Amino acid sequence: MVKKKVPDWLNSSLWSTAPPPPDDDRLHRYSTKPIATTTVEPPPVPVAAPPAPAPAPPPPAPAVVSTVQEEPPKPQVIIHNSDSNNNNHRNDDEIDNSAQAQLLPELSKKVINMRELRRIASQGIPDGGGIRSTVWKLLLGYLPPDRGLWSSELAKKRSQYRHFKEELLMNPSEITRKLEKSENDDPKSESSGMLSRSEITHGEHPLSLGKTSIWNQFFQDTEIMEQIDRDVKRTHPDLHFFSGDSPSAKSNQEALKSILTVFAKLNPGIRYVQGMNEILAPLFYVFRNDPDEEFAASAEADTFFCFVELLSGFRDHFCQQLDNSVVGIRSTITKLSQLLKEHDEELWRHLEVTTKVNPQFYAFRWITLLLTQEFNFADSLHIWDTLLSDPEGPLETLLRISCAMLILIRRRLLAGDFTSNLKLLQNYPPTNISHLLYVANKLRTRSTV
């Protein structure tokens, strides 16, 4: 069989990344083991990634990097250039100013042109003035294109979320107290206000094991809530916005826990799966740092609905019963393998045939966590700008970006064996995000030719 010719542009030095320095902390981040189910292995506490090279003179808002921040930093797109690519792209200020100049007029229209908004947002969104916060809500369908409907829609959704919390986060003791109060309000009830044993139904008894028992359900929920609590405390320990003993960090953790708990109770078929906290974090971070005080104060409710919308396109990846179905995680990983074979058969053959590197060993985490663990936090936000803005949906874009990640380091992969390649793919090296997204878009163009 004749091998497919590798396009010249794939072999260009433009897409090659230099090996990371020996002391690169990325080599010590979460390790991924072969996983047969959709439960993400609990990761150890990650070591903070090394500070990125200093970008061009920053705008007034402080830049986000993956080092410890004393105060919740304001989100902002930062493009980290690799050593071989420093002169191939405009600097950060030029990109941000250009995007802002295009986005502001579009966002000020009475009815926003979503097609045009997606086109501009796919190139990266600056966060000055809460632009990313507003654009993400539009891209996820939380805000309607008609600006005149924003106020009523937001009021309705935020009220709905408050209702969810009141109904779903209530302790059974509180439910019982309500019943007791109801009994007290009844003139026929005894003056003690205590329910007699004969009046306590089976479902209200703490020792009941019945499926309809509010206490039995509460104890099951408690296990999930404990898992959520552990995972939330591990979310981005390098950022004080998420981690630490400050009142703001504690408040942010409580918000994340509430969102995940409400989601788990409203979706009993999925409930909570480890890793969902990592998908939730970027949304809450961006919305909570909105300079508009009203939007920042309502970040928890806004994040909940945007999280539900985002996860709706990936929910089958978290359902173990669908692992082997056409919509399950294994099927999606197979699509990535096929995409690589289509665009670079030589690399595909070396990885999967010669060195036997099963894509499940590294791509499981890439796909289920939407690349949040492969790059620093600021770069993840830039990647999500592109993921959320694609009209085809985030999954297809995610697969193209994952394929581009392989292509960017193809020379090192072709020179490696099973051990070195697996280590490289599980600890992806620093990469110019603009280049990565360019290659991913190039794959879309070539696929449609």
Description:
The model is unreliable at 11-90, 188-200 and 205-209 (pLDDT under 50). Helix content is 52%, strand content 0%. The protein has 449 residues and is an all-alpha fold.
Task: Describe the secondary structure blueprint for this structure.
Blueprint: H1 8-11, H2 92-107, H3 114-121, H4 131-139, H5 150-168, H6 172-185, H7 214-233, H8 247-266, H9 276-288, H10 293-297, H11 299-312, H12 329-343, H13 345-354, H14 360-368, H15 377-389, H16 394-408, H17 410-414, H18 418-426, H19 433-448
Oligomer: single chain
Ranges where pLDDT stays below 50 over 5 or more residues in a row are 11-90, 188-200, 205-209
Strand content is under 5%
Number of strands: 0
Structural class by SSE content: mainly alpha
Number of helices: 19
Q: Radius of gyration, rounded?
A: 24 Å
Estimate the mean pLDDT confidence.
77
- Report the end-to-end length measured between terminal Cα atoms: 24 Å
Order of helices and strands: HHHHHHHHHHHHHHHHHHH
Per the principal axes of the C-alpha atoms, what is the gross shape?
globular
* Helicity, as a percent range: 40-55%
Sheet having the most strands: none
